[in-house]
Design brief:
Elements: E1 9-13, H1 17-24, H2 27-31, E2 36-41, H3 45-54, E3 57-60, H4 69-86, E4 90-94, H5 96-108, E5 113-118, H6 128-144, E6 147-150, H7 153-161
Parallel strand pairs: 1-2, 1-4, 2-3, 4-5, 5-6
Helix pairs in contact: 4-5, 5-6
Length: about 170
């Protein structure tokens, strides 16, 4: 009797489900024919709609878009535990906060493939301490990811010339 091989598991993460709807509509259902696809995002009706439409498992983990240290720490712990329990082959994040939290958690949980997609950057137009915090979080996201995708040449230029990452 032949042994069945486990399907590779890919977890897609965003702070809010709207981002998954924007960047992954139709893709998740297509990928689920070859991979076990799981979506992690903040809870709500839109996350339920993604599960229904894309026919993938969606797991609600509350992430705040704004800086919220205590809530961010809770989300980070939840993500680490979730990734450790799920043993994914890859984690792919979108949005700044999900990128920071999910790439850190995936690294701590020893997920072998960690991908973050930058769809834009906020720090180039920020000033003062806010700029420093945003640059640092993008640097940390890149340090924890082993693959970086930039939506366009301008984002790529800012990441490399801005000293955020040397990764291709």
């Amino acid at each position: 009797r032949p042994r069945t091989m486990r399907m590779k598991k890919v977890i897609y993460c965003s702070t809010i489900p709207t981002s998954i709807n924007l960047f992954c509509r139709g893709l998740l259902r297509e990928l689920s024919s070859k991979y076990e696809v799981v979506v992690v995002s903040s809870p709500g009706e839109e996350l339920d709609e993604i599960a229904q439409r894309e026919q993938v498992r969606c797991v609600p983990i509350k992430m705040h878009r704004e800086i919220a240290p205590l809530a961010d720490e809770r989300a980070l712990v939840q993500l680490i535990r979730f990734f450790q329990a799920e043993h994914p082959d890859a984690v792919h994040s979108f949005t700044p906060k999900a990128g920071l939290l999910c790439m850190m958690a995936a690294k701590m949980a020893n997920v072998p493939i960690r991908i973050h997609t930058f769809t834009g950057l906020v720090w180039p137009t920020s000033i003062g301490i806010k700029r420093l915090i945003l640059r640092t979080t993008d640097w940390l996201t890149c340090a924890c990811a082993n693959h970086i995708l930039a939506e366009g040449k301008g984002v790529c230029h800012d990441l490399t010339c801005g000293g955020i990452t040397r990764k291709q």
